[in-house]
Automatic annotation (TrEMBL):
The organism's place on the tree of life at top rank: Bacteria
Name of the protein this chain belongs to: Uncharacterized protein
Organism: Bythopirellula goksoeyrii
Pfam families: DUF6580
Chain segments annotated as transmembrane: 36-61, 73-90, 102-123, 157-174
Keyword field: Membrane, Transmembrane, Transmembrane helix
Length: 182
C-alpha cells in the first residue's frame, strides 16, 4: 500500500511540476500562470513538507532556465520567497474543514497575487534604478505593475478553481451514479 501511495504522490508531483513549468513558459509576459495555484495544491496535497516546498522551488528553477532573468537578485529572491504565501495557505487548508476551508480557498485565489504584487513591486522599486526613490516613484512602480497583478490574480483564481475541481474528482472515494431521465 505504501509503494502505491508513493507512486501516486510522485505522479502527482510530476504532473503539478509539469503544469507549473508549462504554464510559466506559455505566458510569462502576461503573468497568467498556474504557479501560485499549483503551490496551494501542493501545500494541501502533500503530507511531506519537503515535497510541498520542492514543488514551487522546482517549478521556478526549471522555468527560470528559459525565462528572461530578473533585473536584480533582490527581485528574484522576493519572487521565490513570495511562493511561501500560497504554500502556507495550502498547508493551513490541510487541517481545516467546512467554511474555514472555503475561506482558505478564496484566500488562496486572492492573497498570493496581492502579496506578490505588493512585495515584489516594492523590492523592484527599492533595488533597481528604474524608478525615482520617492513616493511618486513608488506609486509609478505600483501603477506600472497593475496589468501584471490583474493577470496574476485572474490566473490564480482560474487555475486554483480548475485544480481544486480536478483534485476533488481524482480523490473522490465513491463514484457517483448518474441517472439519465428519458
Amino acid at each position: 500500500m505504501k509503494n502505491k501511495d508513493s507512486l501516486r504522490d510522485l505522479s502527482v508531483f510530476g504532473l503539478l511540476l509539469a503544469i507549473g513549468v508549462a504554464g510559466r513558459w506559455a505566458q510569462p509576459d502576461w503573468n497568467f500562470t498556474p504557479l501560485a495555484a499549483v503551490t496551494v495544491i501542493g501545500g494541501y496535497y502533500f503530507r511531506s513538507l519537503l515535497a510541498a516546498v520542492l514543488l514551487p522551488v522546482g517549478i521556478l528553477a526549471v522555468s527560470d532556465l528559459i525565462l528572461p532573468a530578473h533585473n536584480s537578485v533582490a527581485v528574484q529572491i522576493s519572487v521565490h520567497v513570495m511562493m511561501l504565501v500560497p504554500l502556507l495557505l495550502g498547508r493551513m487548508a490541510q487541517h481545516s474543514q467546512g467554511w474555514q476551508r472555503v475561506s482558505l480557498g478564496v484566500l488562496g485565489g486572492v492573497l498570493p497575487a496581492t502579496a506578490f504584487f505588493v512585495v515584489t513591486n516594492f523590492v523592484h522599486w527599492a533595488s533597481t534604478g528604474m524608478y525615482e526613490k520617492s513616493l511618486t516613484g513608488l506609486t509609478v512602480c505600483y501603477v506600472a505593475g497593475l496589468p501584471f497583478y490583474r493577470a496574476m490574480l485572474a490566473g490564480d483564481v482560474f487555475y486554483l478553481a480548475v485544480l481544486v475541481t480536478c483534485l476533488t474528482i481524482a480523490t473522490a472515494r465513491t463514484p457517483q451514479r448518474v441517472r439519465v431521465r428519458a
